[in-house]
Amino acid sequence: MSLRLDAPGAATGVRRFGRATRWVHRTTAVLMGVCVATAACLYIPQFAELVGRRELVVRIHEWAGLALPVPVMAGLASRLFRADLGFLNRFGPHDRVWLRAAVRRDKRRSSRPAGKFNAGQKIYAAWIAGATLVMLGTGLIMWFTHLTPLQWRTSATFVHDWLALTIGIVLAGHIGMALGDPEARRGMRTGLVSREWADREHRLWRP
After folding, report:
1. Cα 194 to the chain's mean position, in Å?
2. For 113, which of 45, 94, 144, 166 could close a Cys bridge (C-beta 3.0–4.6 Å)?
């Protein structure tokens, strides 16, 4: 569905994201940011010295981690958000073409066909969702120490710590790519993108 903005100075725009999708993204981003920031304060001595109050930082980290799945679960009440999840979960032949071009570092638009989401965005969404669930599971094992044997807790700590580092690196890449695409950021901020951008970056998408 396209939307024309008739206010003075406004341009024709295409509706990319509904309110629920934007709310889920923002809330999840805030919670993930809190998890990353508190983790840094717990593991990097210089940050720990600046912040202090380790027990409070631990509690904030734990509760932010527990809350991470809540925005997505709440968003499932929205038909438009469920539709966006459906687009993210479908991997078609054009996505394989996109990935082959990415591996070859072929940046021509014609060699990277994409629907509403490109293959890179789909893989990122699937990976971060899975990583979040693993972090939640290992975090619970570390939190409720009396429920599991020592070997489980040791393994959970190892997985939690190294996956946290990986998530930090992947999130930095995600943010870097977003900073390089102002129109994509506008789409997530306002829900609207230009028709020219949609046709250029996601030419298989039929809004």
Report:
1. 22
2. 94
Type of residue at 91: F
Two structure tokens written together for 96: 């394989």
In sequence order, what are the beta bridge partners of 12?
4
Percent residues over pLDDT 70 in the chain:
94
Single-letter amino acid code for the residue at 143? W
- pTM of the predicted model, to two decimals? 0.85
Number of Cβ within 10 Å of residue 158's Cβ equals 11
Q: What is the torsion angle, in degrees rounded to the nearest 10, for the CA atoms of residue 141, residue 144, residue 147 and residue 149?
A: 50
| Total length of the chain | 207
Would you list the DSSP string of 171-194?
Answer: HHHHHHHHHT-HHHHHHHHHSEEE
